[in-house]
Specification:
Layout lengths: L2 E10 L2 E10 L7 E5 L12 H9 L2 E5 L17 H17 L5 E5 L1 H12 L6 E5 L7 H4 L1 H11 L2 H6 L6 H12 L20 E6 L8 H9 L4 E6 L6 H4 L1 H16 L8
Parallel strand pairs: 3-4, 3-5, 5-6, 6-7, 7-8
Antiparallel strand pairs: 1-2, 2-4
């Protein structure tokens, strides 16, 4: 199946959000998958994955640059609770503006956390959820990953690599994100108590060599959500399975999506 891409700008109360959509070229779509990018991510950093995902599932795939990222506006009033604000205010507003109902959310890293927070607040609003390398409690101190990224951004090559994906607010974007996760007391951040409110089918994907999170993240999600849940652990894979092992990810996601669209809920495993 082939898909066609379109881009559009959506005006939210806090600013303009850049959106990209991939739709089956025959004009039909079995469902809608909404992609939520990682903490330093954007539409363009998904690469060819949205097109491949649309082709594998026969769904329309929507991705967007969160406010402050990519080509979207930077919000004037940015509080420290940006994960919750994204999940409970901005994402619902965007879905409403796009006319999207009962989507399958696919979130990577911080995007996975946002997807889980959304599902915990609106348990009847989703058809399903794919959580890729999400964080449900902080492991920043244990992994040291953000400190390493900060050093690479300030003295290495990371800023140059990110610049083409974030042409408008690169420095503000990076430091807002890094400062959030390294703020005093952030080591105690958790959303574990909210997982029991999630009722939709959940697929948890993570690499066993993830440099930003342990497999305990997976265990906590699968064991605590109220709805059906399953896990796919990818050997030798780091923090970005959809980039590092896209075929393995598609092989897990496609039947999960198909079962949801056919009304078959996967068992809790």
């Amino acid at each position: 199946m082939t898909v066609e891409m379109e881009t559009l700008a959506v005006r939210l109360p806090e600013g303009m959000v850049q959106v990209a959509r991939w739709t089956p070229s025959d004009g039909t779509a079995r469902g809608e998958i909404v992609l939520l990018h990682q903490g330093l991510g954007s539409i363009t950093q998904w690469g060819s994955f949205p097109e491949a995902l649309g082709a594998a599932t026969a769904c329309r795939v929507t991705a967007y640059d969160r406010l402050g990222y990519g080509r979207s506006d930077f919000p004037d009033d940015e509080r420290g609770d940006f994960l919750e604000r994204e999940a409970w205010e901005r994402l619902p507003a965007l879905l409403d503006a796009l006319g999207v109902e009962q989507p399958i959310l696919y979130g990577h890293s911080d995007g996975g956390t946002i997807a889980l927070l959304y599902a915990s607040e609106r348990p009847a609003a989703l058809a399903g959820l794919v959580s890729e390398a999400a964080h449900v409690f902080s492991e920043v101190a244990e992994t040291g990953g953000i400190e390493a990224l900060r050093a690479e951004f300030e003295t290495g090559d990371l800023a140059r690599k990110l610049a083409r994906h974030h042409p408008r607010h690169l420095d503000r974007m990076f430091h807002r994100w890094a400062d959030f996760w390294q703020a005093p007391g952030r080591d105690d951040w958790t959303m574990l108590e909210r997982l029991a409110a999630i009722e939709c089918p959940v697929l948890v994907v993570q690499g066993d060599a993830d440099e930003h999170g342990s497999l305990r993240q997976v265990d906590e999600i699968v064991e605590r959500v109220h709805g059906p849940a399953e896990r796919r652990i990818l050997p030798g894979c780091g923090h970005s399975p959809h980039r590092e092992q896209p075929q393995a990810v598609l092989a897990a996601v496609a039947p999960f999506v198909a079962a949801i669209l056919q009304g078959n809920r996967a068992p809790h495993t």
